[in-house]
Amino acid sequence: MFRRDALDEAQYRMDVRTWLEANLPVALRGRTTRPSPLELMPWYHTLSRKGWIAPHWPRQYGGMGATLNEQIIMAEELARIGAPHLPVQGLNHIGPILMEFGTAAQKAQHLPPIIAGTVIWAQGYSEPGAGSDLASLSTRATLEGDHFVVQGHKIWTTWAHHSDWMFALVRTDPRAQPRQAGISFLLVDLRSPGIRISPIKTIAGDDEFSEVFLDEVIVPAENLVGKLNDGWRIANALLGHERLATSNPQFSLTALERIKTMARASGIIADPAFQDRLAAASINVTALSAMFSHAVELTNHEKSLGPESSVIKIFGSELLQALNDLLIEAAGGHALADRPIATDFGEVDVATPFLQSRRVTIYGGSSEIQRNVLARRVLDLPT
Ligand SMILES: Cc1cc2nc3c(=O)[nH]c(=O)nc-3n(C[C@H](O)[C@H](O)[C@H](O)COP(=O)(O)OP(=O)(O)OC[C@H]3O[C@@H](n4cnc5c(N)ncnc54)[C@H](O)[C@@H]3O)c2cc1C
Q1: Is residue 124 a contact partner of residue 169, using CB atoms and an 8 Å limit?
Q2: With the CA atoms of 154, 159, 161 and 165 taken in that order, what torsion angle do they form, in degrees rounded to the nearest 10?
Q3: pLDDT, position 10
Q4: Low-confidence ranges of the chain (pLDDT < 70)
């Protein structure tokens, strides 16, 4: 922790801790892969009924309207108890975007089901030929009267096979120059005819993402967010939210706790050289919490983040990988096990979080791309 709780915050922390202890099912604690919707969504619904599912959303949209410190306390307490990773595409990505850019009808239709957890969202940005170079995307949407006809192929779409809706970047003007000026932002009902979804297994063994094939899919024109061909601006605003959300210190705090448990169990905790590395890692996690709180504060004032989102994305994701390297060191020879290790302090899964942490420097824009952004937009270097 980089800050001390004021008296009322300490009380709030105890309330959150007590409630989580009483309500988060033990089977969902300390999970290293995201549980299936069947297991996870009841927990989402419990948080929603409590009014805690969206600490950062304003009350008018069903959020908690929590102060910055309350949001940080919530993240720390969720990490402390090992709460599972919720589907965030609705809560952290499209929700805030609709609040900023959506029509009244879009807000009324889509925000309440996100809060209630009755609808799950997916993000349709990447394509087989458009990842880092997202502006080269080729999924085509042609406006025909009161609807678009969408034809194309999305890939790496997190939880698409469990989702009801997908926000997608589509090309609406193939001749526009620069290419970014021909892209629009559409809300696509994944139950529409012409959609086929095919899950992909990751190196950690979970089916986190999918390919989405769109064949002459009809999307009503009112599902356009913002103006026609102005999707790039919205896409970038959303990526700012995404980079911030994926840098939530909750994940690093959980990783730190896992290292400590493993190090106690293996005995390496007594090694002064390991203690030095653990101390350095703890300081970096505290620094991430401080950075995160600064970024959240900026978002509260300015809605969308600028290059700060790249700084925190690089720091948060590379820190998570460094923490998982330290976890391997703490486990020593046991790190070779491809299943959780039984210890005197409970089971510790080492292999899965290590493998899963490979992905964090890729999604939401890779570390290399974030460094390019900073080189161009902050340092004004030639590209
Ligand atoms: C777990 C996970 C979940 C994801 N979820 C989603 C999702 O829900 N929706 C979605 O749309 N996408 C999702 N993605 C896709 C993600 O956004 C892309 O993987 C990412 O943008 C990189 O694109 P790519 O995979 O095509 O790699 P490429 O763009 O082919 O890049 C390959 C490598 O080359 C490097 N590189 C590329 N261009 C440059 C350059 N100009 N300068 C320096 N280096 C460069 C990259 O950094 C990378 O290391 C997810 C990815 C992962 C791993």
Answers
A1: yes
A2: -70
A3: 95
A4: 1-2, 302-304, 383
> Which of the following is catalytic: 77, 127, 242, 329?
242
Count the Cβ atoms, other than its own, within 10 Å of residue 316. 25
Give the whole-angstrom CA distance, residue 351 versus residue 380: 41
Q: Among 146, 149, 243, 167, which Cα is nearest to 212's?
A: 167
Q: Which of 316, 353, 369 lies closest to 125 in space, CA to CA?
A: 369
The full set of domain ranges for the chain reads 7-86, 121-230, 247-377
Residue 123 bridge partners (DSSP): 167
Tokens of 211: 């390919």
Q: Is 121 in the pocket of ligand 1 (CB under 6 A)?
A: no
Minimal CA–CA distance to 140: which of 100, 95, 176, 104? 176
242 is catalytic: yes
Q: State the CATH class of domain 247-377.
A: mainly alpha
* 208 CB near ligand 1 (under 6 Å): yes
Of 106, 72, 112, nearest to 91 (Cα)?
Answer: 112
The string of pLDDT tens digits covering residues 258-273 is 999 999 999 999 999 9
- Ligand 1 pocket test: which of 121, 139, 314, 362 has the largest number of ligand atoms within 8 Å of its C-beta? 362
Find how far residue 342's CA is from the centre of its chain: 30
Cα of 236 to ligand 1 centre, how many Å? Answer: 15
Helices (H) and strands (E) in the chain, counts: 11, 10
- Taking each helix axis from N to C end, the angle separating 367-377 and 308-331, rounded to the nearest 10 degrees, works out to 150
Q: Does domain 121-230 have CATH number 3.40.50.2300?
A: no
The verdict on the CB of residue 159 being under 6 Å from ligand 1 is no
Residues β-bridged to residue 189: 165
Ligand 1 close to Cβ of residue 71 (< 6 A): no
8 Å CB contact between 1 and 54 = no
How much is the pLDDT for 158?
95
Q: Given the CA of residue 128, which atom of ligand 1 is nearest to it?
A: 26
Sequence-distant (6+) residues with CB within 8 A of 355 are: 202, 203, 204
